[in-house]
Design goal:
The protein is an alpha/beta fold and 413 residues long. The chain has 16 helices and 17 strands.
């Protein structure tokens, strides 16, 4: 079963709006057993829309289309739809009543643009939109189902959840796709692939492995396809079990779990607390930790000690250490972590000091160098890492490396 996704809107192509619709629809279609083989974004232009619709015709079982259904003059999708399906617009009385009710509830005046949103192609099946003013539209042509929905994400999700996915699941039940995502950290993608050479060679024909890297974290997606759900599920689970045995030290979680989520669970279950002392990461680690709901139960606070004077005055870092070793050094980062742990009275303290770039490089200390320290009542562990030259990427990589070292320390304790 093949599916394609088409998003319409100039704002998508110029980067003004990020296309989150395609990601969400692709994930939902995959869960329903569809192979999403193409995602296309096009201008609000008749010829571009027609080209995209023709590209899907006869080549895909389902084409999901979002965008261009608003009440303004630049929304030309419905007129273009009529041309493609050789039909014409009619006013749908039920849709009009829904729009009138919605506008009156919001105390908005009803104008001609709102009334035009009740116009739908005569040959379509109308999908009522209970959370917006633009209805969805369902067509079938030459073996391809076309479903048009508003580009507003929560309206699209409503139509997908209430109508589209249930109906597609009734029509297409021949294939089942099951994914499990395993989150890893600690080696490069090339090294991880080498470590998994034997594992990949032993995969059954209907089980696939994909590598999805981002900022040093590599998500391994195990995908199984077939017609019997329990059989596929068991096969996927068997391969995941083998994966855990193959790279146990690299796996930290599953299914989009972030390191900060895992750390939060570990700290809660052990009734422990943490703080951060950050220089090069500028509070990024604290931000990541506190992005998790309930983090107030284990996170006490942070000192962003960017200047050496703050390292010395607030965290008690020795001026001799700064002068002798430099701010980016094992000695200084150890003292930062120990000082923060005492200052904020926590079980764990995370400290970072590094060179994010693009300035600050020396012969001894390259851009991308970071020293990380984790202080506990038993002592302090440190780690030196060297990444690349991009400042924004380095700040993210420094922070993730620090969180992983904290995770390992909590587990080892």
């Amino acid at each position: 079963m093949k599916a394609s996704i088409i998003t319409i809107g100039d704002e998508l192509l110029i980067g003004q709006t990020i296309d989150t619709n395609s990601a969400w629809m692709g994930a939902e279609l995959s869960k329903s057993g569809f192979d999403v083989y193409r995602i296309t974004s096009v201008h609000d232009k008749r010829e571009d829309i027609l080209y995209a619709l023709n590209e899907a015709l006869g080549k895909t079982d389902v084409a999901l289309v979002t965008g261009g259904l608003g009440p303004t003059s630049d929304d030309i999708t419905k007129q273009t739809i009529c041309e493609f399906f050789n039909t014409y617009l009619v006013s749908d009385d039920e849709v009009l009543r829904m729009i009138q009710y919605m506008m009156s509830r919001r105390n908005f005046p009803m104008n001609e643009n709102n009334k035009r949103q009740a116009e739908v192609p005569a040959s379509c099946r109308v999908l009522k939109n209970a959370v917006g003013t633009a209805p969805g539209m369902w067509f079938e042509k030459d073996g391809t189902i076309y479903i048009f929905m508003p580009g507003v994400p929560f309206e699209m999700k409503h139509l997908m959840t209430e109508y589209v996915l249930p109906e597609l699941n009734k029509l297409f039940t021949s294939q089942i796709i099951i994914h499990r995502n395993i989150m890893t950290y600690g080696v490069s993608e090339a090294q991880l692939a080498e470590n998994l050479t034997g594992f990949e060679a032993g995969l059954p024909d209907n089980i696939k492995l994909a590598y999805l890297p981002a900022w040093g974290i590599i998500k391994l997606r195990i995908t199984g396809t077939g017609t019997e759900k329990e059989l596929i599920l068991n096969k996927v689970n068997d391969q995941v079990s083998k994966l855990y045995k193959t790279i146990p030290d690299l796996i930290y979680g599953e299914n989009e779990e972030s390191l900060e989520m895992v750390i939060g669970k570990l700290l809660k279950s052990n009734d422990k607390t943490v703080c951060t002392a950050e220089s090069c990461t500028g509070g990024q680690i604290a931000h990541m930790i506190t992005s998790i709901p309930g983090s107030s139960s284990y996170f006490k606070g942070s000192v962003v000690a960017y200047a050496n004077s703050v390292k010395a005055d607030l965290l008690g870092v020795s001026q001799d250490s700064i002068n002798s070793y430099g701010a980016v050094s094992e000695q200084v980062v150890k003292e930062m972590a120990s000082g923060a742990r005492i200052l904020l009275q926590t079980d764990y303290a995370v400290a970072t000091s590094g060179i994010a770039g693009p300035d600050g490089e020396t012969q001894e200390k390259l851009i991308g160098t970071v020293w990380i320290a984790i202080a506990t009542e038993k002592g302090t562990v440190t780690e030196k890492r060297v990444f690349g030259n991009d400042r924004i990427a380095n700040i993210s990589r420094f922070s993730i490396a620090a969180l992983n070292l904290l995770r390992l320390q909590i587990i080892n304790d």
